[in-house]
Amino acid sequence: MHVLVIGLGSIGKRHAANIQQLGHTIYIVSSKDKMPEAFGEVVHFQSPGQALLAQQYDAALICTPTTNHDTALISLLQRKVPLIYVEKPLSHSLENTGEIRRLANSYNNKLVVGFDLHFDPGMIYLKEQLAAHVIGKVVSVNAFVGQHLAQWRPYEDYRNGMSAKVATGGGVLLDLIHEFEYLYRLFGRVTRIAANITNTGTLQIETEESADVLLSFESGVSAVVHLDYLQPVLKRYCIITGTKGTITWNLADKTVDVVSNGAAPVIFSYKDFDRNDRFVDAMRSFLSNKHDERFATLDDGIASLDIVLRAKAAAGYTVAKSDKNVQVSDTTAAQ
Predict the structure, then answer these.
(1) Dihedral-angle region of residue 316 (phi above 0 means left; psi in -120 to 50 means alpha; beta otherwise)
(2) In this protein, which residues make up the domain named GFO/IDH/MocA-like oxidoreductase (predicted)?
(3) N or C, which terminus of the chain has less Cβ within 10 Å?
């Protein structure tokens, strides 16, 4: 297959290498004048427009800064590319969702948003346990993720990276949207949101360093979500409390603990699992063009983005109506 990779930051490099490993031919769009040695022989374009004029592609991936997703996605849909993979989040706003939906519905395609956590063995096991009702009816959830921003991309000054800048769609809410997306996929529509967003100035970035969000789901479940760029050691876990027990998914330790009333605790460990394997599994499935319920659809991507934007609005950010959804129009970090 001929696969176009738009953007060659850390995630673009990862996807490009994995696609090559799977035996496909890649083409790269990057503003960089010189390609990394690993991709030195790959055909390289300076812009998506240039690449799309050059030839047809079987598939394309969007791995640019978040604020550039809409433009690239609309271009791919206009050229009727059959398989499109958009790295999370779908965008930084919902301004263009109407046009994206219209174009996506105009021809037969597979459009997915890259929430790779659904390919994690821990998530797969957690879903199985919830489906088996081993902890009864779910009542509440505590989701926590934090890691110091300097550890994300150690090869660059984080203060100049996309996470630090409003213009590129940074901040913990968009960067760590995984937590909102998997909670939405597990527990359904969110009906009420309260949030507090913090930028202490410690990291010297424009965007929010920390956020605490309270979610109420139509299903009756409530969730508390904490996100931050400050933890000196990665912490990422989700505790699900039910009427008959609890499930604790620890992503950092690669374990899932199930404790149900009257039964011995069960520990599922996948410590030998390599993080890149979930990206390879996702890309193999995506390029096979077979149905895979682990993928987030366009509607899933819109729903999770809507939750984040509603959290921003609840925390006092200025929002404007667009496409019958909210659009953040002023993303200056809260003081």
Answers:
(1) left
(2) 125-247
(3) C
